[in-house]
TrEMBL record, chain A:
<dbReference type="InterPro" id="IPR014289">
    <property type="entry name" value="RNA_pol_sigma-24-rel"/>
</dbReference>
<dbReference type="InterPro" id="IPR014284">
    <property type="entry name" value="RNA_pol_sigma-70_dom"/>
</dbReference>
<feature type="domain" description="RNA polymerase sigma-70 region 2">
    <location>
        <begin position="15"/>
        <end position="81"/>
    </location>
</feature>
<feature type="domain" description="RNA polymerase sigma factor 70 region 4 type 2">
    <location>
        <begin position="133"/>
        <end position="180"/>
    </location>
</feature>
<dbReference type="InterPro" id="IPR013325">
    <property type="entry name" value="RNA_pol_sigma_r2"/>
</dbReference>
<dbReference type="InterPro" id="IPR039425">
    <property type="entry name" value="RNA_pol_sigma-70-like"/>
</dbReference>
<dbReference type="InterPro" id="IPR007627">
    <property type="entry name" value="RNA_pol_sigma70_r2"/>
</dbReference>
<protein>
    <recommendedName>
        <fullName>RNA polymerase sigma factor</fullName>
    </recommendedName>
</protein>
<dbReference type="Pfam" id="PF08281">
    <property type="entry name" value="Sigma70_r4_2"/>
</dbReference>
Automatic annotation (TrEMBL), chain B:
<protein>
    <submittedName>
        <fullName>Zf-HC2 domain-containing protein</fullName>
    </submittedName>
</protein>
<dbReference type="Pfam" id="PF13490">
    <property type="entry name" value="zf-HC2"/>
</dbReference>
<feature type="domain" description="Putative zinc-finger">
    <location>
        <begin position="7"/>
        <end position="41"/>
    </location>
</feature>
<dbReference type="InterPro" id="IPR027383">
    <property type="entry name" value="Znf_put"/>
</dbReference>
Length: 196, 67
């Protein structure tokens, strides 16, 4: 077996920096903080034990995150420890102010042209801003969006796992995408342009 | 049938087409709306960009060591 591509001391330091992001991700999906802490701990133990298989083709952070993601997908499949909620429209982000009374876009909320080329999205900074925007959504909205776009469940699987209707699921994702698009525009695309 | 000028309804359909197949009626409604509305054309393009970026990120997370 090849020697690990990362020194144990580096591993520990980078894990400590990553831990808060892992915990918030786990808390978004699981029904209590103890379970979230446990699954993060199991993830880090798996990563440590499997460190010899890590060949640094991806970043250590991506690799650890992929282990946590698999564990959370399994918990959803086993209907175990998952955060469930009663669907309540009042708990969703308010997207009414984006539109005028005649249902046209409000001028100040209408989508602008994004200057950043698509290829530039493949960097860690973009995903950091992206995740902050997702966590900035109300918890249930952020959970459903994360199930769809990060864990890769389809809306049928989401409504089965959370026991909500598919219509509710579409409503949640619509609100999430409206808010997320606006958040990315404000904090990534326009911010990038101003840097130039 | 929704009012042709409803950007709000258009965003609902643009979001849902990421999650399910739109009916023929919905597709033709949306294409017509997009032909008339530059703001929604931008929205449509941006949702596609976000969707594709998320798909690539999922692929990387599925197989982080085969990149």
């Amino acid at each position: 077996m090849s020697s690990p591509s990362i020194a144990p001391a580096d591993f520990e330091q980078r894990v400590e920096q990553l831990r808060p992001r892992l915990i918030s991700f786990a808390q978004l999906h699981l029904n209590c903080t103890t379970d979230a802490d446990d699954v993060v701990q199991e993830t880090l133990i798996s990563a440590w034990n499997g460190l010899e298989q890590f060949q640094a083709k991806s970043s250590l952070e991506t690799w650890i995150f992929s282990i946590l993601r698999h564990k959370i997908i399994d918990l959803y499949r086993n209907h175990s420890k998952i955060q469930l909620f009663e669907y309540d429209e009042n708990q969703l982000p308010d997207t009414a102010p984006l539109f005028q009374e005649d249902q046209h876009w409000q001028k100040e909320h209408a989508p602008s042209t994004w200057p950043t080329p698509y290829k530039e999205l493949e960097n860690e900074h973009f995903w950091h801003v992206f995740d902050l925007c997702v966590f900035h959504l109300p918890p249930q909205t952020s959970q459903v969006f994360s199930m769809r776009e990060l864990l890769g469940f389809d809306t049928k699987q989401i409504c089965q796992a959370l026991q909500i209707s598919e219509e509710n699921c579409w409503t949640i994702l619509h609100r999430a995408r409206l808010k997320l698009r606006a958040c990315l525009e404000q904090n990534w695309f326009i911010a990038e342009e101003n840097k130039l | 049938m929704k009012k042709m000028s409803s950007c709000k309804h258009a965003t609902e359909l643009m979001s849902q087409k990421q999650d399910r197949e739109l009916s023929f009626k919905e597709q033709t409604w949306l294409i017509t709306h997009l032909s008339l509305c530059a703001n929604c054309r931008r929205f449509n393009k941006q949702l596609d960009i976000i969707g594709k970026a998320c798909e690539e990120r999922r692929e990387e997370l599925e197989n982080p060591e085969t990149k």
